[in-house]
Design a protein that fits this description.
The protein is 32% helix and 16% strand. It contains six helices and seven strands; from the N terminus they run βαβαβαβαββαβα. Strands 3-2-1-4-6-5-7 form a seven-stranded mixed β-sheet, with helices on both faces. The protein is globular and about 45 Å long.
Length: 234
């Protein structure tokens, strides 16, 4: 572990990859099973990258609660990380809870989701390094949100009154940071995978170029996943 990444906790926000309940905007392109399988693959990939970054403790902050049966196949993988429920409230309330909990124990925090395959171990290490000289680091997404927010200080103002799930999220958060007088390292934007058009940003070996084949290829490359279900095309 490098000196610049000492005491950096990576908190991964994740939703259980259940068909029909996750990645619903991708269902027109992938079907409910295909969308869930892609969500599952992105979850596993995000965990792998966070562990490979070797910055410090990794936590899966999940909904529903980690002791619910849907998470059992993932807990059985015995990943070397902690599990935590997200708690109640909107996304801002839950992000604030995770950030405050981590920072209260003296560690800086990287808050990430599971929607961005471009958020590699190298980019996580880069973000952690920025916290050695800045109060915050952000990796924005091309749709106006962010795929990573790193902090070494806490204020609930960062998470209150933000128009979540809109193109204003990153700009509003940056404005709050400015109001607080905090320094920010803004890194190059990345793609998150939310809409059918975003599938073109998947790594080349994850899917075929033909939209009609995405679901079957996602299954092909995720056939070792504990919850995998074969996708049937009409």
């Amino acid at each position: 572990m490098s000196a610049v990444s000492e005491q950096v906790r990576t908190v991964i926000f994740a939703k259980a990859p259940q068909p029909g309940r996750v990645k619903t905007r991708l269902i027109p392109a992938l079907g409910a099973q295909g969308a869930a399988l892609l969500a599952q693959r992105m979850l596993r990939y995000t965990v792998q990258q966070a562990l490979a970054a070797a910055l410090g403790p990794v936590e899966l902050c999940v909904t529903p609660h980690p002791r619910t049966p849907v998470w059992r196949p993932f807990r059985d993988l015995a990943w070397p990380l902690g599990w935590q429920g997200q708690g109640d409230g909107d996304l801002g309330d839950r992000l604030a809870l995770a950030a405050a909990r981590t920072l209260a124990h003296g560690a800086s925090v990287l808050l990430i989701g599971t929607d961005c395959p471009g958020l590699t171990a190298a980019r996580l290490r880069d973000a952690a390094a920025q916290l050695a000289a800045h109060d915050a680091v952000m990796v924005p997404s091309h749709d106006g949100g962010y795929v990573l927010l790193g902090l070494r200080r806490f204020s609930p103002q960062l998470f209150q009154g933000i128009a979540w799930s809109t193109p204003q999220v990153a700009a509003q958060t940056q404005e709050r940071l400015c109001q607080l007088g905090w320094t920010l390292a803004r890194r190059p934007p990345l793609h998150d995978i939310d809409e059918p058009a975003d599938l073109a940003a998947l790594p080349p070996d994850w899917s075929a170029s033909s939209p009609g084949r995405h679901a079957s290829i996602v299954f092909e490359y995720d056939h070792h996943a504990s919850l995998a279900t074969r996708v049937r095309h009409p």
